[in-house]
Design goal:
This protein has 263 residues and is of the alpha+beta class. The protein has 2 domains: 3-138, Fructose-1,6-Bisphosphatase, subunit A, domain 1 (Fructose-1,6-Bisphosphatase, Chain A, domain 1); 147-260, D-Maltodextrin-Binding Protein, domain 2, CATH 3.40.190. It has 7 helices and 15 strands. The protein has helices spanning 3-23, 42-58, 88-92, 168-177, 187-195, 209-221, 249-260; strands at 30-32, 39-41, 63-66, 70-72, 78-86, 99-106, 109-117, 122-127, 132-134, 137-138, 151-154, 180-182, 201-204, 225-227, 241-244. The strands form 3 sheets. The chain has an 8-stranded mixed β-sheet, with helices on both faces. A 5-stranded mixed β-sheet has the order 12-11-13-15-14, with helices on both faces. It has a two-stranded antiparallel sheet with strand order 1-2. Helix 1 (3-23) packs antiparallel against helix 2. 44% of the residues are buried. The structure holds D-MYO-inositol-1-phosphate and calcium ion (2 copies). D-MYO-inositol-1-phosphate (IPD) is lined by residues 83, 86-88, 155-157, 185-187, 204, 207, 211.
């Protein structure tokens, strides 16, 4: 399908990722978006501007949605969904675990997904029907069959201090049922890693469309399963997600049901 779209998204993700990486050790201006745990740096906005400029120049009729600037209308029925810096808290501390995520949604479905991790120079690319790739290596989810043997990942919402439904009980329970639960601070990287078979499952209670637009397609195209917390399709505009290699998916949903009931 859309090799132009893929190429432009790859170039934009690489350029934004390198911009972020090169500025990682420099001075940083940090602000707070509403809660003391929701940070933003000036680099989030700079990286997003770079990505938006490239997408707009190549596809002037497409809509854009970015975490920092919000929505820009378009007329084509297509929408680019951008997280210019996923892992802002890591970034603000100088920790090199973050990525750029660019997804193209057409008719409500992600069709192209690009995730670039500049610290490992890893470029994850998916196109609907054409597989998920890390460079020239086709990605395949893992074959781990039980929760007992599974390495999982999760993250916590920015209002973790304010709300009771903050993933702490879920985290505690999975920690004693799975082989391990990782918490590295980048939803986009977890999604790419499920696609790559590096982790077997990932769940998170509240995310933005920009966190998942590219990564969900990576997981699907690598043969994984993607649902909301109760096993239904993910609402891209208000995502709560369980993603896995497919084999451990029902076991993950069962644990969530045990803790959360039908929520
Ligand atoms: C956050 C990270 C984090 C996840 C949060 C996200 P940001 O994105 O992906 O791992 O737990 O829910 O909001 O703010 O660094 O782009
Ligand atoms: Ca994010
Ligand atoms: Ca972000």
């Amino acid at each position: 399908m859309s090799s132009d779209e893929r190429r432009v998204a790859i170039d934009a993700a690489r350029a934004a990722g390198l911009l972020l990486r090169d500025a990682l050790s420099g001075p940083r201006h940090i602000e707070f978006k509403g809660t003391p745990t929701n940070l933003v740096t000036e680099m989030d906005a700079r990286a997003e501007r770079l990505v938006f400029e490239r997408l707009r120049a190549a596809f002037p009729h497409d809509a854009l949605l970015g975490e920092e600037a919000g929505a820009v209308a378009g007329t084509s029925g297509r929408r680019w969904i951008v997280d210019p810096l996923d892992g802002t808290t890591n970034y603000a501390h100088g920790m090199p675990v973050f990525a750029v995520s660019i997804g193209l949604e057409v008719g409500g479905r992600p069709m192209v997904g690009v995730v670039y991790d500049p610290n490992r120079d890893e470029l994850f690319v998916a196109e609907r029907g054409a597989g998920a790739w890390l460079g020239d290596q086709r990605l395949q989810v893992s074959s781990v069959a039980t929760l007992d043997e599974a390495l999982l990942a999760t993250g916590f919402p920015y209002n973790v201090r304010e709300v009771a439904d903050n993933n702490v009980r879920e985290f505690t329970t999975f920690s004693v049922r799975a082989q391990g639960v990782r918490r590295m601070g980048s939803a986009v990287i977890y999604l790419a890693y499920v696609a790559a078979g590096r982790i077997d499952g990932y769940w998170e209670l509240r995310l933005g469309a920009w966190d998942v637009a590219a990564g969900l397609l990576l997981v699907e195209e690598a043969g994984g399963r993607v649902t909301n917390l109760t096993g239904s399709p993910v609402d891209l505009d208000n995502p709560a997600i369980v993603v896995s290699n497919g084999r451990i998916h029902d076991a993950m949903l069962d644990v969530l049901k045990e803790i959360r009931g039908g929520r």
